[in-house]
Amino acid sequence: MAQKSIVSEFAKGLVRENPVFVQVLGMCPTLAVTTSVANGMGMGLATSFVLIFSTLIASLVKRIVPGEVRIPVYAVVIATFVTIADLFMKAYLPPLSQALGPYVPLIVVNCIIMGRVEAYATRNAPGLSLIDALGMGAGFTLSLMILGAVRGALGSGSLFGLSFTPVLVMILPPGAFLTLGILMAVFNAVKDRNSPVMVKA
Amino acid sequence: MKRMIIVLTAVMVVSGFVLASAYTLFLPQIQANRKAALDASLNAIFSGAESPSFEKLDTDQMTIYRASGGGGTTLGYAVNVTASGYGGDIQLLVGLSADLQSITGMQVVEQIETPGLGGRIQEAWFKKQFEGLDPRAQISYVKNTEPDKEKNQIQAISGATISSNAVVTGLNNQLEPAIQIIKQLDK
Fold first, then answer.
1. Which of A104, B94, B167, B172 has the smallest number of Cβ neighbours within 10 A?
2. Which helix (H) or strand (E) holds B64?
3. What count of other Cβ atoms lies within 10 Å of the Cβ of residue A193?
4. Per-residue pLDDT reduced to its tens digit, B124-140
5. Is A107 left (phi over 0), alpha (psi -120 to 50) or beta?
6. Is ipTM beyond 0.90?
7. How confident is the model at residue A200 (pLDDT cuts 50, 70, 90)?
8. Cα dihedral A167/A172/A177/A180 (nearest 10)
9. E strands along B98-144, which residues?
10. What is the DSSP letter of A166?
11. Interface of B with A in 120-149 (CB under 8 A)
């Protein structure tokens, strides 16, 4: 088995295996809540919290849990952390909790989390799983913030102090698809251009 | 098989315990937030009065508060109206004058409308439009023209007709029954 370096395990979540732009996972919150940078960041951090603790626990208990019931066990673990995140936000970040609305409880069904638990945490040591979750969480949060920044700026009509007629559609659901499609194309074009360098490294 | 049952049971017990603890830990703060939001809305509606006190009317059908001034005089009422908006339920608080003849204020307590569009029902100009309207008559909204207060009209938010309509419909459907309840209980 090839030695996995901590840095590359973390960094793969940012670019090479970016959950939003490359794996195209977790599209529901990606499209729904990225109307502003703050909302994108809130959703990204809440998801990261759930992701980090769920993968850590899944990795720790992977030898104890029989294969037949691993999915229900992970589902319960994920749901527990989501509910904690939801309660915490309702108690200490009420405006953000209001803005994200039903999308916080819906982190339960976010496929990034079950994906990382199944694809990574059950096959790797707790330490590496934690690094993986941190990278994926950071990649998800940053992607949502970029989407939120583009949509928020165009939709509200102010960018770096310049004001122009707001493009309303960017705040509406179609704007999420437009922005995501364009950003995904740009992201992958840049990634592919740089990929030979990454292979060498 | 036996191991499966033990593992599943253990996971459920642990997560149940963790959730119960988290709930107990956060509940006081969540309730305090709700109460603070409600108090802020009540005080905003009766901002003209000096230190008004609020008392919930004894009815199961609707949530209605009576605002009283210093000498125990009734300043007016605040009715909790639930409207179904674009993103889900909108919780509104509508102030009524003591004689129940006019709306004295409207506040948005909870909403999950689209930010920048339906979310603009929280903006002051929109809420202020309802002041002075007649709660007993149908309220309607207009677009692109100046609303006529005499005709119980308000200006809809451009691009957010669904949310504007939701607020108006909620008021039209629920203010009349609220007035009946207040009359029964308080007159």
1. B172
2. strand B64-68
3. 9
4. 999 999 999 999 999 99
5. alpha
6. no
7. very low
8. 70
9. 103-110, 140-142
10. -
11. none
